[in-house]
Task: inverse folding
């Protein structure tokens, strides 16, 4: 298609972090859903950015569905990990889920990881550097990674993040 080469992106993170809202905002306006509801299981979607055609696996972040994430590790050419920057109490849970993912043998070693410090518009949101510290991102050695503050409601930060990802995939 017009979007160029196809790449599979896995979108994970805790429930309510803003994964589905992020993906909606990355789609052309005419294809965006008005209402976003909590994801049940997962959804497959697509958008085009940076000369690539992204097929996105939008996983549910709810506890009972998190075991589904690993089913898509073998196909994932990139991962977007979304964090609610204002959800300080669950940062440790997000870190545990990240550590579990990073230790999984089916996740490709060179797969780039884009972290979105989402909901940066909320007054109590932590800065991206603080999220990076809480998740111990500096300890990630094998994967290229980047963290970008985002607001999925306005789209702020999303293009910058996805362009970084596209640069790692070209
Ligand atoms: P699950 O599908 O349950 O895993 O959640 P999700 O990560 O897909 O979250 P979803 O996109 O459904 O968003 C959850 C709620 O957060 C919704 O009410 C969104 O409108 C809201 N939200 C998402 N991104 C932002 C943001 O950047 N800022 C603010 N203020 N709210 C956001
Ligand atoms: Mg969702």
Result:
């Amino acid at each position: 298609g017009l979007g160029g080469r196809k790449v599979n992106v896995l979108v994970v993170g805790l429930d309510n972090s803003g994964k589905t809202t992020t993906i909606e905002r990355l789609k052309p306006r005419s294809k965006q859903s008005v209402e976003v509801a909590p994801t049940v299981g997962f959804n497959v979607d697509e958008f085009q950015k940076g000369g690539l055609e992204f097929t996105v696996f939008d996983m549910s972040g709810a506890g009972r569905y998190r075991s589904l994430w690993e089913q898509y590790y073998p196909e994932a050419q990139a991962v977007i990990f979304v964090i609610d920057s204002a959800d300080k109490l669950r940062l440790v849970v997000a870190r545990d889920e990240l550590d579990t993912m990073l230790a999984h043998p089916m996740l490709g070693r060179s797969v780039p990881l884009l972290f979105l410090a989402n909901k940066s518009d909320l007054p109590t949101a932590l800065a991206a550097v603080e999220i990076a510290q809480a998740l111990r991102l500096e300890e990630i050695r094998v994967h290229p990674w980047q963290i970008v503050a985002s607001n999925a409601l306005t789209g702020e930060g999303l293009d910058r993040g996805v362009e970084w990802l596209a640069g790692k995939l070209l």
Summary: The mean pLDDT is 96. Residues 13, 15-21, 36, 38-39, 60-62, 82, 118-119, 121-122, 151-153 surround guanosine-5'-triphosphate (ligand 1) (CB under 6 Å).
